[in-house]
């Protein structure tokens, strides 16, 4: 009986953490596809992970990764800096670290989901 209670508690905690804040990679601007030092960041409510690309004269110049407001997703912003017109495009995704350079399968399982599934499986065995 105690084992079932413990497994149930683990499953409940795993389900609670499923709704936790989105984790993304953060990378300051880099030029022409050069490697960029990344760190992790936690998005605020209403934000998603994104890769942000800036282009001028049709050439991709800069890139960064971070959390952005979901309203910016898949939109372009055009601005002028020092007389040069450039366009910033926001490529968004929703999933922990989905804005990494390496593409992750869209169906990857999070640790809380795996723990919840394991808990259900163990309860059935006990």
UniProtKB/TrEMBL annotation:
Record-linked PANTHER family: SPERM ACROSOME MEMBRANE-ASSOCIATED PROTEIN 4 (PTHR47613:SF1)
Gene3D superfamilies: CD59 (2.10.60.10)
Protein localization: Cell membrane; Secreted
Classification of source organism: Eukaryota, Metazoa, Chordata, Craniata, Vertebrata
Alphabetic keyword roster: Cell membrane, Disulfide bond, Glycoprotein, GPI-anchor, Lipoprotein, Membrane, Secreted, Signal
Membrane topology: Lipid-anchor; GPI-anchor
One cellular component term from this protein's GO annotations in UniProt: extracellular region
Alphabetical list of InterPro entries matching this protein: LY6_UPA_recep-like (IPR016054), Snake_toxin-like_sf (IPR045860), SPACA4/Bouncer (IPR046354)
Full protein name: UPAR/Ly6 domain-containing protein
A Pfam family hit: UPAR_LY6
Domain called UPAR/Ly6: residue spans: 22-112
A GO biological-process term: sperm-egg recognition
Family per similarity comment: Belongs to the SPACA4/bouncer family.
Chief localisation class: membrane
Signal peptide start and end residues: 1-21
């Amino acid at each position: 009986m105690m084992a079932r209670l413990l497994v149930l508690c683990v499953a409940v905690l795993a389900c609670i953490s499923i709704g936790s804040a989105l984790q993304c990679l953060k990378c300051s601007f880099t030029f022409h596809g050069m490697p960029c030092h990344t760190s992790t960041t936690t998005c605020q409510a209403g934000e998603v992970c994104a890769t942000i690309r800036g282009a001028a004269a049709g050439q991709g110049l800069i890139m960064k990764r971070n959390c952005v407001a979901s309203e910016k997703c898949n939109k372009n912003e055009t601005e002028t800096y020092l007389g040069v017109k450039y366009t910033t495009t926001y490529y968004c995704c929703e999933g922990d670290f989905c804005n990494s350079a390496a593409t992750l399968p869209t169906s990857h399982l999070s640790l809380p989901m795996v723990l919840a599934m394991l808990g259900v499986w163990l309860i059935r065995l006990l």
